[in-house]
Each structure stands twice: as C-alpha cells, then as structure tokens.
Amino acid sequence: MTISGKNAIVTGAGTGIGRGVALELAKRGASVAVHYNSSEAGAFQTKRLIDEAGGSCITVKANVASKEEIDRMVETVADRFGRIDILVSNAALQLNLDLFGHDDDTYDRTMNTNVKGYWQTIQAVVPHMKSRNHGRIILVSSVHSKRPTDFDPIYAMSKGAIRMLGRESAIELAGYGITVNMIEPGAIDVGKFRTGSAQSPELFKKFPGGRVGLPSDVAELVCYIAGDATSFMTGTAIRLDGASMLL
Amino acid sequence: MKLKEKVVFITEADTGSGTAFLHRLALEGAHFILNSASGGSEIAENLDRVRRGGSNVFVANADLSRSIEVNDLFREAEQAVGTVDVLIHNADLVKPALVETCDEETFLAVMNANAKSAFICTQAAGRQMRAKQSGKIIYVTSIHAEKPTGSSFAYSASKGAVKMLAREAALILGRSGVNVNTIELGPLEEDAPPFPSRLTTIYDDYRYKVPDAVLGTYGDLAELALYLASDGARYVNGADIRLDGGFLMHYSDRKMKKV
C-alpha cells in the first residue's frame, strides 16, 4: 500500500481509535497531524508513540465545533506539510444522555461537533485535495448510523446525518479525485470494553469471534482505504464490528 | 371513525402535506394542534371547514427548534384540546447548497428546521405519551434519507438524522406503548422536486421513473399517515415506509413507461 510520503490529518487522535489510526499511518510512512481538543496529554502520548516508532507527526489543537478553529487547524497542517492527502475525521462527542436527558444545549453540542464539525473539516481540506486531483476522506462513524443505541438518541442522529453527509460528499467530490468513505465500528476496546487475555463466554454472546474490536482493526482499514488501490471505492460505509450487529 | 377524540399535532400546518393531513384526519374524528407559520391566517378556510365538521383546533406559531417555545405550546394546547395522541412531524426545509460551498447559517437553518425540531417535538410529545402509555409518532422524511440529492446535502443529512431519531424513539417510547415510524416520501404530483443538480440525473424524467408513470399526491401521504396513526398499525414500529410508487427502484431508462 502506498501510505508512505502521504500527509494525513487524524481528528480526535489523543485517544482510542484516533490514536490507533494516527500511529498506524505514521508507522507506514505518512506524516500525521495528531489533532486533539480536550485530550492534550493523550495527544502528546500519541506523538510519543509515533516518535518511538520512528514516524513523523505534529500535534494540533482545535475545537471542531468551531469553523474558525477547523480552518486554522487545516491551514497550520498545510503550512507544515505542504499538502494534505488524507483526512480521517474521528473526533466525536457522545454524552450518553437518553431522550429525556438531552436538552437544546446538549443536542447542539453533539450535532455541532459530530456533524457540523465533520462537514466543515471536509470543506476545509477540499481545496488542498482538489488542487492535486487526489484525496482520501474517511469518516469514522458507527454501527449506530443504522442501529439505535438505546442510550443516546442524539449521538445516533449525528451518525445518521454523517451517513448522508458521506454519500452526498462522495458524489460531489468524485470529480475532484477525492473519495469519501465511512467506517462503522462497533464496540472497540478503548477502555470501556476490555478484551482481556482470556476470551470470556459472555463476549461470544455479543461477538461471534469472541472479542471486541481494537483501534488497530480500524487503523488497518483506514490504511487500506487511504491507499492508492481504492480510487473506485467511494460513498461506501463499511461496518467493522466482528459481525456483532448480525447477532 | 378511526381517530375519534384523538388529538393530532401537525408541525407544519400551512404546507401541502399539512392541509392533506388536516382534512383526512378530521374525517376520522380527530382534534388538532396546528403549528402554523402564518398563525392560522393562510389556512383560515381549512380551519373553518374542520371546525364545522366537529374538530376542536388549537393554532400556534412556535419555533419548534426551541424547547421553551414547544413546552409553552404544549401547555396551552393541553388546556385547549388536551394532550397529544398523534405527532405528525412534517418539517421539510430545503435550501440548495453544496458540501464544498455551503455556509454555516444555511446548514444550521436546515438541520434545525428538520432535525432539531423533530427531537424537541418528540421529547415534548413523548412525555405526554409516556404518561398515558400510548401514542403514535410519524415523521414525514424523504427518499433522501437514503439517496443523496446532489444539491442539498444538509437536507439529506437532516433526514438521515431523523431516521435514527425514529429508531431510538421506537425503542424508548415503544416501551410506553408508543409507535414511531417514518414515511420516506418521493416526488409528488403537486410539487416539482426542489433538487436541481448537475451531479445526479435522478429527477430527469422523474415521472416516468415511477414504474406506472403516475405520481402520488398529498392525499396518498395522508392515507398512509392515517394508517400509521390508527390502531390497525399497532405492530408497526421503528419502520421506514418508502412512499414513492417505486421511484427509487428505477434503474433502466429504456424500460420507462413513456408513451
């Protein structure tokens, strides 16, 4: 795969999936902008892991609910790297409030980060990709773009919106050589779910393979989509959940 | 009479769909809470007609994307006609704008009008329905909850969001005897589809992409809403029903029924 020499932005790379994706892209030779907002210590840990692996990265802070901060982030990255080949949007808010727990403000916070932020980040990188007639935009969504959560309806609304944002972006940006795809992870071991050393019988009830996903599972798929072999693949959503949604 | 003494809340009463719901459901004995952008003035004749037929009607003009206004509306409506039995959310704001060039104001206007209002109304109506352990929620969405428009991405994103809201509400309110479904509406006879696009040919010859080459009407929409609002639909929950005459199934132009 041809990740080496590419430049990537990974949002929400101070924790979990974003960290795993940033690390794998860097290991394969990409220069990576490790974005964070509240997870500063986490972002520096991601940078440390990339440095130790011999990779190249910068950290960049932005609140993706703000267009100004998104624009500043993308300009900073473009100045440092010269061009932008890959965007992995991953930074999302999940407040875990139910239908009656959410209010106007928590709705806005969730949607502004998860939907408006994803859209405006696309908008900010498009000029950099369009000028070279090449780009890979990968939206990390969720199995909850189709399956309800039963714990946070607004989070699911944001993922349902991203599903259509991705489809619209795919047909609109295809003419610029930019692909837009979505990854829909299920439960990923980022602290809440633990795979542990032994496979527990309980896990088999929810995951046919007896384990939850790992950030590295998502990272492998990102690297595939980000490569040069996928120019015909756009507007798709790949569920990455160990078939748990089929049980 | 399938909706005798039931209170139906129509979120956009001044529109073509709102008018069709009003007249059809009035025939079944419903009472109404109507959110009217004109405060009732543009639908005065319709109001007279259904009132003469025996319906109680409460008219408001609230910004449904603000809880404070919706809660006031529900409080006043409860005094006037009672609590909501059927919520029909038919907000449908379209503002053509591309992903690449849309401004934030346009994006938020569409998302708030179509999706945030759905959440706020579901929360308010859901409280009342939970208290009486029954109710029906119907969202009029669009085939563009699935198919991109190529011209109005915020619209399809808003409809994608409502699709998930419906599924969530089908679970959480389903436990309180409430049925929650969406109608994914295709092109109709009355209005030309507002999606001019250089990216997709979906609406070229669209009448003939309906296999029978006959477009539906707001009357067809009202019939489906009546079904979903009635007891006969008690086992329909969390469903998206595409109402487009098969338009979205179209694939081969040369086989169109075009005389």
Automatic annotation (TrEMBL), chain A:
<protein>
    <submittedName>
        <fullName>SDR family oxidoreductase</fullName>
    </submittedName>
</protein>
<comment type="similarity">
    <text>Belongs to the short-chain dehydrogenases/reductases (SDR) family.</text>
</comment>
<dbReference type="InterPro" id="IPR002347">
    <property type="entry name" value="SDR_fam"/>
</dbReference>
<dbReference type="GO" id="GO:0008206">
    <property type="term" value="P:bile acid metabolic process"/>
</dbReference>
<dbReference type="InterPro" id="IPR036291">
    <property type="entry name" value="NAD(P)-bd_dom_sf"/>
</dbReference>
<keyword id="KW-0560">Oxidoreductase</keyword>
<dbReference type="GO" id="GO:0016491">
    <property type="term" value="F:oxidoreductase activity"/>
</dbReference>
<dbReference type="Pfam" id="PF13561">
    <property type="entry name" value="adh_short_C2"/>
</dbReference>
From TrEMBL, chain B:
<dbReference type="InterPro" id="IPR002347">
    <property type="entry name" value="SDR_fam"/>
</dbReference>
<dbReference type="Pfam" id="PF13561">
    <property type="entry name" value="adh_short_C2"/>
</dbReference>
<dbReference type="InterPro" id="IPR036291">
    <property type="entry name" value="NAD(P)-bd_dom_sf"/>
</dbReference>
<dbReference type="InterPro" id="IPR020904">
    <property type="entry name" value="Sc_DH/Rdtase_CS"/>
</dbReference>
<protein>
    <submittedName>
        <fullName>SDR family oxidoreductase</fullName>
    </submittedName>
</protein>
<dbReference type="GO" id="GO:0016616">
    <property type="term" value="F:oxidoreductase activity, acting on the CH-OH group of donors, NAD or NADP as acceptor"/>
</dbReference>
<keyword id="KW-0560">Oxidoreductase</keyword>
<comment type="similarity">
    <text>Belongs to the short-chain dehydrogenases/reductases (SDR) family.</text>
</comment>
